Amino acid sequence: MKYRRLYRLPFILAAALAFALPLAAQNFNIQEHTLKNGMKVLVQEDPSIPNVALYTFFRVGSRNEHEGITGLSHFFEHMMFNGAKKYGPGQFDKTMEAAGGSNNAYTSNDLTVYQDWFPNSQLELIFDLESDRVQNLAFDPKIVESERQVVYSERRLSVDNNNFGLLEEQLEATAIMAHPYHWSVIGWPSDIEKWTLDDLKSYFAKGYSPSNATMVVVGDVKADNVFSLAEKYMEPIPAHDPPPPVRTIEPRQLGERRIEVHKFAQLPIIEIGYHVPQAQGPDYYTLELLQALLTTGESSRLYRSLVDQQQLAIQVRSGHDATIDPFLFTFTVQPRQGVAPEKAEQALYAEIDKLKSTGVDDHELQKAKNQVISSYYRSLRSINRRANVIGRYQVLFGDYHKLANAEQEFNKVSAADIQRAAKEYFDVNNRTVATLIPTAEKAADNNAPAEEKQ
Amino acid sequence: MKGNLWKLVSSAALLIALSAAAAAQNTAPAQVFQLPAFQHVKLPNGLTLLLLEKHELPLISIELALRSGSVTDPQGKEGLASLTASLLRKGTASRSSEQVSSDLDFIGMQYNAQVDQDGTHVSADFLKKDLDSALAVLSDVVLHPTFPEDEAKKKIAQQQDSIRAAKDEASRVLQLYFMKFLYGDHPYGRPANGDERSLAAISRDDIANYYRQNYAPGNAILAVAGDFDSAAMQSKIAQTFGNWNGKAPASAPAPAPKPVSGKRVLLVDKPDATQTYFMIGNIGINHTNPDRGYIDVVNTLFGGRFTSLFNTELRIKSGYSYGAYSFFNEMKSPGPFIMYSFTKNATTEPAIDRSFEVLGRLHKDGFTPDELVSAKKYINGSLPPEYETTPQLAHTMTTLELSGITREQFNQNLVKLQGTSEADSRRMIDTYFPDQNYAMVLIGKAGEIQKIAAKYAPNVATKKISDPGF
Asked: Do B381 and A100 touch (CB under 8 A)?
């Protein structure tokens, strides 16, 4: 995901804290209302702090792009802050901050999400600001040029000068040949340089119909009040056709693909991707548990083997996103200095093979369930994160009610499911491997990204 | 368990009416955020216990803090406090390292131990029903660690490689270079997690000695926030931590750092960089500075939010950067004031020029009353979500106690900042935002930016990113 801005500096690491929460029959008390133009509004009243989180989810992302306009969804997200009819350039942020509010936005392969956080007294002002830009966004050519540079700087920060980001982009472009998940959310550098004003205008017309949006409001509000403000400010915005369906289905991978990235670095990195189903497909919850078994906590299989016992790596991570179309389950390993990347890679396969051949016992599976369920509910702890999770369930899983069933879904997964999924997905022919191989300092010039070659 | 997850208490306790001082401004927020009350207990063995009940969710967060941070590391053995904290979980008198991990993973508990300059923080976050298991494993690692030799060696080697890996990404290490360059030999200049060389100088005995000298109840603060009854929690903690003995070390505060006078520049060469990452700043304030509320208002407008002067200049108007920020790290002794941004190699010079221009403009123009009101509202509106969850509250309690700030003083400061006047703002700018004296660190491709760096100081110090240390 690409965020519009960094809220905290990346080197100020907050302590990541979490908890477990067994919920039997919970009640999320979400109230819903669909406007005449098709926009869905979900509200959860929560007066625990005098603030509100208002998130607007548009079901459009880099998945809806094509060659030549890669990264445009994310660029468009930036342009949504740069002036509309009533609130001109700079006024959206100025007005919101002066009212005690703040905002951000993120774009993923599937979605573009706008986030507002503000004192409850400012609810109507926020609706006014949001409806202005959704209805009457303006595009000043000068601002387009300046914002293009901002996005390019963001690309340098998160991809070109970030070895993990760079390798991930290359891995995905290799593993996904046909489907638009082939390119990264930030977009290829040459496209960033060449998007046009017309590209932006047609993108607005395509993706930003109210019928393509879900608004989630969590905090110290009354649902009736939110619904009437939504009717006043959002309902008059006419609906139009949603983006055309994405037709391309990624063909089945027929054998292992391997790539290398040679770059100045002190430590290598290995990223491994296996094709897995989409959020609404089979095995979403099983894959979450596989992630926990393999890499969550220092008792996880890969941490214990690669980091602790064999001391081949300083870290190992895994995971998959909830996505609209099938995407990847990835492993990221950072080998110790002096350890051949292939050695760490083989050690990882040895653990996966063990899981495939002998499966898990009840205690280990229960541990993974406790971890996953606790981490899932941790994501509901603040009004901000809850607004995000409710919206993602609605747009990615198709129904926010499924949120209440998550714990049951995890509990349904059996040891046999785990073993079957490991065999089915973690197969050599379904695998793409990308390795970042450190080069010496003097070679760095030859490996700088293309923009630096004059 | 509470029947309804979202059963929530009234927020009235969090808010007080506007104080007279802020009311005089007439345009300040209607209600000023205030931190809720918590209980303060001293156990007979000297342990300070802080308790804050919060019953919306069946969760408990604990944070144990020691008044010993990386400042207590001996010179040449930087990273000792940090290694000690990270090895607590690597074996106790009754549990192997693997057993500790299995036990805390099985209850889905999140555990973390980290060290900054002024303190050590060990935190645990878990479900109310697992209180006994959680307290058992937390007290075991804090009270009975054995520091096995092989685990110490392993951790040292991993930590050295982690530092090398961090240097592959400029934005992760820039502040470490900046602190070293700004503070020099002052303890705040030492990297809290050590460096490639200092870690190699640390032995298992150093770690065990550090533990003996610093992990004592009189040196510790235990904060608990969440769903519990305070009286019952106090007796549980007394049972678990009441037999903890040991003498607290004499307090050894870091001396007052000397601000940079003149202009100093360090260039760290990262030959693959396509973007230059830079910090400009000087010595700032400590965490009890009476001006800290006023400074917060002024810094919000200068570089603390999206529409700040600094971000407006480097991002919104010029497109030089994805972001430009300024901040004060309030520490026990004065921490740094830092301006931070990054830009592609080719615009390094204009971006740095603009950074100084905007600092000059701050001094020339100051801020209008409307701008001050906007910043005050922004700060007040941002506070409730910063003190919303039990981990945030447990961390806040330990941090205040480490800083020697009472809840009343914390709250008074929030009210006081709402009274920031134009004259206060002017005084803050003159006193705390130096524009003629600074330290600047750049990480970037020396082959392209070396000459530019030389423009900002008579002599430019240089390093390679792969050189050990910072």
From this structure: yes
pTM above 0.95, yes or no: no
Q: What is the CATH number of domain B263-464?
A: 3.30.830.10
Task: Give yes or no on whether B39-241 and B263-464 have one common fold.
Answer: yes
> Chain B closest CA to A35's CA: distance in Å?
26
SS3 of residue B264 by DSSP: strand
Please give the structure tokens belonging to residue A66. Answer: 């094509």
Assigned CATH topology for domain A29-233:
Cytochrome Bc1 Complex; Chain A, domain 1 (3.30.830)
Q: Contact A220/B382, CB-based, under 8 Å?
A: no
Model pLDDT for residues B274-303, shown as the tens digit of each residue: 999 999 999 999 999 999 999 999 999 999
Q: What ranges do the domains of chain A cover?
A: 29-233, 257-452
pLDDT category at A20 given cuts 50, 70, 90 is: very low
The torsion angles phi and psi of B329, rounded to 5 degrees, stand at: -90, 110
H helix runs in B201-282, sequence order: 204-214, 230-241
Q: Token digits for B202?
A: 């640390």
Contacts of residue B58, Cβ cutoff 8 Å, sequence gap at least 6: A21, B1, B2, B127, B128, B129, B227
Domains of chain B, residue spans? 39-241, 263-464
The string of pLDDT tens digits covering residues B129-169 is 899 999 999 999 999 999 999 999 999 999 999 999 999 99
C-alpha closest to that of A243 among A197, A188, A202, A214: A202
Please report the DSSP string for B279-316 in residue order: EEEEE--BTT-TTHHHHHHHHIIIIISTTSHHHIIIII
Q: From the candidates B10, B160, B169, B321, which should be mutated to test the interface with A, based on the most A CB atoms within 10 A?
A: B169
Please tell me the distance in Å from B341's CA to the nearest CA on chain A.
10
Q: Of the candidates B10, B317, B380, which has its C-beta nearest A47's C-beta? A: B10
Residue B145 DSSP label: B
Is the domain spanning B39-241 CATH 3.30.830.10? The answer is yes
Q: Give the CATH number of domain A257-452.
A: 3.30.830.10
Res. A7 pLDDT band, cuts 50 70 90: very low
Judged by CB atoms closer than 8 Å, whether chains meet at A444 and B325 is answered as no
What distance in Å separates residue A10's CA from the closest CA in chain B? 7
What would the DSSP string read from start to end of B339-365? Answer: EEEEEEGGGHHHHHHHHHHHHHHHHHH
Same fold flag, A29-233 and A257-452:
yes
Residue A75 gets the label, from left (phi > 0), alpha (psi -120 to 50) or beta, of alpha
C-alpha angle with apex B413: B409 to B415, nearest 5 degrees? 120
| ipTM of predicted complex | 0.92
